[in-house]
Amino acid sequence: MSSRSDERLRGKADRRGGDVLRRRPADDYVFEIFTARGVRREQLWGSAYRYWSSFALAYVLGRRLSGRIDFLDAGGREGGNVALLENLGLSGHYTCLDLNPVELDRPPGAFEMEYVRSAFADFRPTRRYDAIVFQSSMEFVRLAEDIAWTAGALKPGGFAVVLLITRNARLLYPGFWYSGGNNGRDRDELPAFFDAIGLRIVERMALVGAVGRAVQYLVQLKAGRLLNGAVKRGVGWAFPAIYRTDLMRPFNRVLNPLTAALDRLAPFGRVGHCLVLERKQET
Questions:
Q1: For residue 107, what is the DSSP state?
Q2: What pTM does this model have?
């Protein structure tokens, strides 16, 4: 096919929805992520994107980390990823960076916990890390310079993991989007964004295919809202605990592995990315 034809097809894809309709980068789908161990079980009962991203994170950390580590959970809220690290047999120091961190009363474990209250733009690392994870927090970063500290905060051989939705995923997360998490990015934007702060992408994995995307929107979001709303309005007065329960969880336990299997036949229409980043000067 001629280069002119390539440009015409790319332009058509951009006009019709960016990553949603691009079938070209099917090689970004790495279905081996579903062999990962240590995944936090409660993460598997959420949306299709949460299911994929939880496996992808466990897949990366399980292959790249061992022994005692220094770990930074950037935007980690209550530091829930410490459970994943302990499932993987790791130990060390865990820093939870968040604008409003929640310090839970945890029993003594394999990690020394540190909570830092700071915006990303104001953060000044006091140590260097084997791994830095941005999970559902990079969407709040508008300017790359707000996380320019990342490259310098990595130890030699260290890496960062970014789990990030695409621009077109806004329909799947309207509340998240309007609360400030509106900086999703598409595949072709990512290299330049991170290159500007001294980072290069060494692994890139697409998260969720066309089947999972459709199910997340039509079933988990739309039908889920109707189910939760109807039941909670109907019997919530008698069972207050229902208000704190997502009634889609039992259905998601079946839907998520099923749609992940079907997405092998439809590896396009990604909802997000899992990126592994290293400092540019390292080879």
A1: P
A2: 0.86
